[in-house]
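Now for our target.
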Amino acid sequence: MSGRLRRDLLVAVFAGWLVFSTVYVFGRLFLAGVGERLAEVPVAAADEVAAPAPSVDGLRADLASTEQPAALIEARGAIDGRLVLDRGQSNVALFGNPFGVDPDEPALDLDVRFSGRDATLRIVAEGITVGETRTGRMTVVIAAGPQTFNARPGMCALEMSEIDYVTISRPWGQVVLPSFSGQLVCIDVPELRSGENASFTVVFAYEEH
């Protein structure tokens, strides 16, 4: 091998080694920087992962299993968690026969208040029928502690799954009262004072005893 060829070969080997070393060093520095940046990314703990919104069917099953059904509210946003309302009071009473009630498609002037230890729910909707989805012409107010949410038209969808009437004997005579169940879904309802939003999934059932 000639001296010139040997020198060219050494230069080529040295140049290759220099390129490899440079790439290796900068690669390590780059990966180290990436590792540091990844270490700075917060990782949510298992208990911090947001739970999915509950289904109406799931809430209805939970409500049916309670000894004294009234209403369950699953809240997300300014209020977060489940609210149990174990008392109900209907402000609708019909004396005698409920005039105008079609047994095949009964309508209800709904005016009910559910309450519990930490919250209350008021729903007013005139002339609602089973299967109808009502998004307007109703009043929905949810209060929890110091927070009050008053839904505007279009924020809530109300649907009755059952409407019936029961006759109850009172000292002054027979009283016809409604029994009913339904569901309510409200999206981004603002709190009256803070303006913070909350969404609610509600199931309810009322029967006079």
Remarks:
- Residues 131 and 160 are 6 Å apart (CA to CA).
- Helices lie at 3-40, 56-64.
- DSSP finds two helices and twelve strands in the chain.
